[in-house]
Amino acid sequence: MTDISDRKKAEEKLTALAGKLEFRNRELEQFAFIAAHDLQEPLRKIMAFGERLGTKYREKLDEEGKDYLIRILNASKRMQQFIRDLIKYTRVAARPEPLDTVDLREAVMEVISDLEIKIERVGANIEVFELPAVKGEKSQIRQLFQNLIANALKFHGEEQSHIRIYSRPTDHDCPIFVEDNGIGFDEKYLDRIFVPFQRLHGKSAYEGTGMGLAICRKIVERHGGSITAKSKPGEGSTFIITLPLECN
After folding, report:
1. What is the 3-state secondary structure (H, E, C) of the chain?
2. pLDDT above 90 covers what percent of the chain?
3. Taking CA 137 as the corner, what is the angle to CA 131 and CA 141, rounded to the nearest 5 degrees?
4. Which residue, 230, 228, 151, 219, is CA-closest to 185?
5. pLDDT tens digits, residue range 12-25?
6. 125 neighbors 163 (Cβ within 8 angstroms)
7. Distant-in-sequence, close-in-space partners of 116: CB < 8 Å, separation ≥ 6
8. Which residues contact 161 (CB under 8 A, 6 or more apart)?
9. pLDDT above 80 for 30
10. With contact defined as beta carbons under 8 Å apart, do 127 and 165 qualify?
11. Pick from 213, 81, 63, 240: which is nearest to 150 by CA?
12. Cα angle, residue 50 at apex, residues 46 and 52 outer, rounded to 5°
């Protein structure tokens, strides 16, 4: 009887601690969201005055002054993108909206339409096969595939970029595959690529804040799923999203 009582107390304590941890995490996410929003206005002013300085007084600046101005504007643009990505991340982390039936193929085709200019610039060929309908939040599902496709376009190799998106539904879940023939990566860095602000390449090689795949993982986890990847340097990557949701 004592063992049962002790176990019950331990379970209640664990439940209480889990509740406190969830509350603290929400507080932290809310703080990050508010802080990111508050940073936008002063940053906009820095960019606006920097651009005005370049327009009105450029001829009065020597070469060193012009170089400083370019650095200010470039750093401001990077910071602006950083804040936007942080806001996206905290929005995903917020309490999710009610789930609807989402046609994955339709969502992916909408994303491809949005990325049309970037796809044409890279010269990529994208194949989208039959995909299931799932229960999810459509805006987040679209964000998930937008980040994955944009990631494949960014890290394309020397050959023409080929991206294949397909599914292999089982009785229990809906694994979705986003496969490319890009530069790939060493799988020893697999855990790192899904961590916020982590990058495998220097800023000079590839632009970005290191938030795209972190947002993908947060979206998938919010839907009760998981995301992983298989890759080899120079042989492309395949991202595998498992959604343990209703499939049609």
Report:
1. CHHHHHHHHHHHHHHHHHHHHHHHHHHHHHHHHHHHHHHHHHHHHHHHHHHHHHHHHHHHCCHHHHHHHHHHHHHHHHHHHHHHHHHHHHHHHCCCCCCEEEEHHHHHHHHHHHCHHHHHHHCCEEEECCCCEEEECHHHHHHHHHHHHHHHHHCCCCCCCEEEEEECCCCCCEEEEEEECCCCCCHHHCCHHHCCCCCCCCCCCCCCCCCHHHHHHHHHHHCCCEEEEEECCCCCEEEEEEECCCCC
2. 28
3. 50
4. 230
5. 777 777 666 666 66
6. yes
7. none
8. 122, 123, 124, 125, 152, 153, 180, 181, 182
9. no
10. yes
11. 213
12. 120
**And the tokens for 21?**
């941890």
Higher-scoring residue by pLDDT: 87, 55: 55
Diameter over CA atoms, the chain: 86
Q: Are strands 237-243 and 100-103 parallel, antiparallel or unpaired?
A: unpaired
Mean of pLDDT values over 217-222: 90
Q: What is the per-residue burial (b if ≥16 Cβ within 10 Å, else e) of 68-81? A: ebeebbeebeebbe
Cα(32)–Cα(30) distance, rounded to whole angstroms? 5
Please name the residue that has the structure tokens 């980040």. 147
* Residues 133/137/142/143 CA torsion (nearest 10 deg): -150
Token pair for residue 68? Answer: 């400083």
pLDDT at 205 over 60: no
Chain centre to alpha carbon of residue 182: 18
Domains and CATH numbers, the chain: 2-93 (1.10.287), 100-243 (3.30.565.10)
Per the listing, tokens 């998106």 go with 165
